[in-house]
Amino acid sequence: MVVETIDFYADEDAELPPPMSQRDVVLLNKAQQLEDEEEEEAAAAEGEAGKQKVGYFSSPSSPIWQWSWM
Questions:
Q1: Cβ pair 37, 21 in contact under 8 A
Q2: Cα Rg for the chain, rounded, in angstroms?
Q3: Which pLDDT score is estimated for 55?
Q4: List of residues 6+ apart from 43 with CB closer than 8 A
Q5: What's the confidence (pLDDT) of residue 29?
Q6: pTM to 2 decimals?
Q7: Is 1 exposed, middle or buried (0-12, 13-18, 19+ CB in 10 A)?
Q8: pLDDT attached to residue 70
Q9: Nearest 5°: phi and psi at 28?
Q10: Which residues fall within 8 angstroms of residue 57, CB to CB, at 6 or more apart?
């Protein structure tokens, strides 16, 4: 299905990439989606690793103590 035809002058199309098949476009799109999902998972994992719970307590005979857990 052709939606629109764009005509180029002889010197205008030198920088254009070669045409892609529909299969190539679909594969490229899927690869980009997988890459985006991996980046999101890595960012989420990094965000979880960066969260560290920290608490403070003191005892009558000692100064304030710090404890943490992940």
A1: no
A2: 28
A3: 56
A4: none
A5: 93
A6: 0.46
A7: exposed
A8: 45
A9: -65, -40
A10: 64, 65, 67
Ramachandran sector of residue 17 (left: φ over 0; alpha: ψ -120 to 50; beta: rest):
beta
d(CA 43, CA 4): 40
Residue 19 CA to its chain's centroid (Å): 27
Q: What is the pLDDT along the chain (70 residues), one digit of tens a residue?
A: 778 988 888 888 778 888 889 999 999 999 999 999 999 998 888 776 655 555 555 555 555 554 544 4
Exposure string of 59-68, with b = 16+ CB inside 10 Å and e = fewer, is eeeeeeeeee
Q: Where are the beta strands (DSSP E) in the chain?
A: 53-59, 62-69
